[in-house]
Amino acid sequence: MFVDASALCAILLGEPEKELLEQRLATVDGTITSAVAVWETVRSLVRAKAIEVNDARSEVELYLISAEIRVVSIGHSEAGAAIDAFARFGKGQHPAKLNMGDCFAYACAKTRGVPLLFKGDDFPLTDIERA
């Protein structure tokens, strides 16, 4: 399972979906995320909690360790898949309006053949497998 920044933020910010997302995480071994999703999550925590970047970074890194979520590399195949995702589902291209981070989450999940754990109304408008 690939964990999108939207899911990480919902969990770390204690949003209403937190419990459901954590239950889904608990059912799967080998959960992954990417450096892009980590960056998005840190940025969101800084804004939402009005905390310092290093504090948000520490919080995210500690959660990734405790939840056993591994950060995977983004390479050429993921970049190509993200470009394809933008062409098919990106802002200005499709009602899903995927942004850059969304396109990379989609690409990482698709290239690895795993479902995507997310919060929101954008990914259901794509062909991604939902976790």
Overview of this protein structure:
There is one protein chain. By secondary structure, the protein is mainly α. The chain has one domain (2-116): 5'-nuclease (Rossmann fold, 3-Layer(aba) Sandwich). Helices cover 56% and strands 8% of the residues. It is built from 6 helices and 4 strands. The protein has helices at residues 5-12, 18-26, 35-49, 53-66, 76-89, 100-112, and strands at residues 2-3, 32-34, 70-72, 116-117. The strands form 2 sheets. Strands 1-4 form a two-stranded parallel sheet. A two-stranded parallel sheet has the order 2-3. α1 packs across α2, α1 (5-12) packs parallel to α3 and α5 (76-89) crosses α6. The relative contact order is 0.20. The model has no long low-confidence stretch (mean pLDDT 97).
